[in-house]
Amino acid sequence: MHRNFLVLLLVWFAAGCVTPPPPVNAPRPVASFQPDGLVTQRAVLTARGRQFALNGYLAQSATGGRRLILTEVFGHVVADVLVKPDGTVHVMRSSRLFHPAWIERYVAADMQCIFGGAPDAACPVQMLSATHFVVERRWYKLDLQIVETQPGPQPTELFDEAQKAKL
Questions:
Q1: Cys-Cys link to 79, which of 70, 91, 108, 159 (CB 3.0-4.6 A)?
Q2: At CB < 8 A and 24+ separation, what contacts does 154-157 make?
Q3: Which CATH number fits domain 34-159: 3.90.550.10, 2.50.20.10, 3.30.360.10, 3.90.1150.10?
């Protein structure tokens, strides 16, 4: 009996010495991106055990917000979202893969987490390098890599919610 208690006590002390892993939320990389420019991205979205390869084209304007167009590998647009400087989200186009509510709630939020402007600092983004990010939420994981950044002003019609994008 005494021996069992001693073993249990040792196991309890050993378990108490394990330190928790550091938080996965990295500082938001706001300063690493130009206020005006076009960012080309490649991503792998894992949801419900399935993986989807996506391309992303993010137009940024210091005065007009952010416009993200997501396409599948063959070029079909699966999501098109505009986030105005005041934080309002406009779903420009959706698909069967990305429903409008999902684009508004998750795609826009992840874009704001990675590229700045998110309303809260508790974004679930991990910055692996200056061009590699992982967003991990309860239902999905997004592994995103920046392929190319082209600095410079973008066409103003990209940031007008009444216009369709032509990237």
A1: 70
A2: 154/36, 154/37, 154/38, 154/59, 154/60, 154/61, 154/64, 154/67, 155/59, 156/61, 156/64
A3: 2.50.20.10
